[in-house]
Amino acid sequence: MSKRLIIIFTVIGFLLFGTVLLVSTKGLFGENKNATADAEIVSVVRGDIESVSDLSGFVRANPRIDLLSEVTGTVKKVYVSTGDSVSEGDSIVDIELPSFIYGYRRTITVASPIDGKVLIINTSKGDTLFPHSSIAVIGDSEHFIAKFYADEMDAVNIKKGQKAILSFDAFPHLKIESKVEFVSDTTVLTKRGVRAFVVEVNIPNEKGVALKDGLSVSVNIITARKSNVLLVPVESVGSDENGSFVDLIVNTNDGKKIKKVYIETGISSDNFTEVVKGLKEGDEILKTPVENLFNDIGVKAPFGMLNDEGN
Description:
Number of helices: 6
CATH superfamily of the domain at 53-61 and 143-225: Efflux pump adaptor protein, beta barrel domain
Largest sheet: 6 strands, antiparallel, barrel
Number of strands: 20
Mean pLDDT: 83
CATH architecture of the domain at 53-61 and 143-225: Beta Barrel
Distance between the termini: 41 Å
Strand order of the largest sheet: 2-11-14-13-12-15
Shape: elongated
Radius of gyration: 31 Å
């Protein structure tokens, strides 16, 4: 096939595609507008909006103490098992120190620093311990926090005192309202090798709810809230190298046309975006910008589809 024929067929293909698109949006600009307005056109409205950060994490006893050895020695006796309740001062393990250090055998006892429960035992009789070896993890059995790791996009918007709604996989119908208690000023390295910011939310005591250290927990943190602002659907806002835009429906002598209008946006929720500048209440826009429709299939909008006036 010659190059000329390929070009002719390509042009015909674009014309056919453009015809199909115009037919599918005919209701936007013809007398039968109301038949498709709900599906194709939306209005700029005023309302309230909340910006929310969604994080997943785990329940932690508060306090939760990793009991570490301060000496080198051999575990002579273990007094507790995982799940045991302990009081402050109760014996956890006996450690026998090497005789060559003191010239005689000496045994020290490591005790629990708090009232709580033995969450983990990391040693057994006969083990050799060194400084900073983990002996056990002791946690409060009645007080808990929710611990999360946030990436930088979320962390910059999260602040102490913000409202937080907690939910739990183990208790599907339970929602607990609380507040952010702590946001780290720097990143830590998670077990997955990712650097993230630590966020902690206090978990108020709930009667009849048996929380446990390690349970999965999710949180919705309200990072911003605004009232009586201009709102458009999230999917109505496109973006390019010049900024954010919408496809505004304008009345002309030739009928209704699409005008690409750049806007200034504010906060966003899952469904809506705040419009700070560029639109007014009652303006009609395309639910999805035409440019986005073509980008989704990897081609540019045919010439004449967009009215570039005012760009």
